[in-house]
Amino acid sequence: MRTFNGSFFMPSVFTLIGIPGLESLHHWISIPFCLFYLLGVTGNCIILHIVRTDPRLHEPMYYFLAMLSLSDMGMSLPTMISLLRVLWSISKEIQFNICVVQMFLIHTFSFTESSVLLAMALDRYVAICHPLRYATILTPKLIAKIGIAALLRSAIPLIPLLARLAFFPFCHSHVLSHSYCLHQDIIRLACADTKFNVIYGLVVITMLWGMDSLGILVSYVFILRSVLRIASRQGRLKALNTCASHICAVLILYVPMIGLSIVHRFAKHSSPFMHIFMAHIYLMVPPVLNPIIYSVKTKQIRQGVLHLILPHKICSSSM
């Protein structure tokens, strides 16, 4: 560590924690975590492979699904290495610079996933409300622009927030409350005025997640209005069924996020295990469940998965 103004310190490392009170079981606890990470990475890689290799899936809906898979992996993979290092007792320390990079990746892809879900809601709106113009509105060029805009929109606002951390002195404990770095965890340890980071962070969350959730809600209001105009009950159910996977994906992201925010806000003195449990659910559940939901609910993805797993049987049955 190097001294700052004679009495404060700029840490070169922070200390991560695993599961408090269960340190003796960390090696066993790492097994389900490894399985979850393996399942999430494998599922999302399969989705990406199917969308890339199957020409029938070169449509806007599946391009957005591929973006969702990339966001899922980008949100969960940065936590995997540090978590397993802690659980396997390799090292509990993380360099300050690596910590900042990890925060940047986690928060960026978390915001990006929310933006992609908004884009998928708009995709469903165009498909149901303007089906004849679907292909002309959502062109591959526009989809690429939406993907780049979602990433930049999520990353750029974080730069001033995280850049300020390099100038904060840390005179309190350097022990973080998770097995990975989060912005709200770091500023809790700073011995400086963090009002800018707190207010700016709240504005960023409100502007990004707030606008995304509002956009998703408005999209579904128009979708429901259009669906209710369909004369046949079967037609209404068919139209709503195309939105089922997306609705599940929205709930999978936003429910744990809201739960984690409530725990941080109103249950500060609750068991540390509760905070850690909610944080891991927020980062690990979407990458695991999203591929499963889309494989079960979307016929084309389900057929692609079956063709990948059982190519000979699928080919023989289609002949």
Automatic annotation (TrEMBL):
GO terms for molecular function: G protein-coupled receptor activity; olfactory receptor activity. It is found in: Cell membrane; Membrane. GO terms for cellular component: plasma membrane. It is a multi-pass membrane protein. GO terms for biological process: cellular response to lipid. Pfam families: 7tm_4. Keywords: Cell membrane, G-protein coupled receptor, Membrane, Olfaction, Receptor, Sensory transduction, Transducer, Transmembrane, Transmembrane helix. Its main location: membrane. PROSITE patterns: G_PROTEIN_RECEP_F1_1, G_PROTEIN_RECEP_F1_2. Belongs to the G-protein coupled receptor 1 family. This is Olfactory receptor. It comes from Sciurus vulgaris.
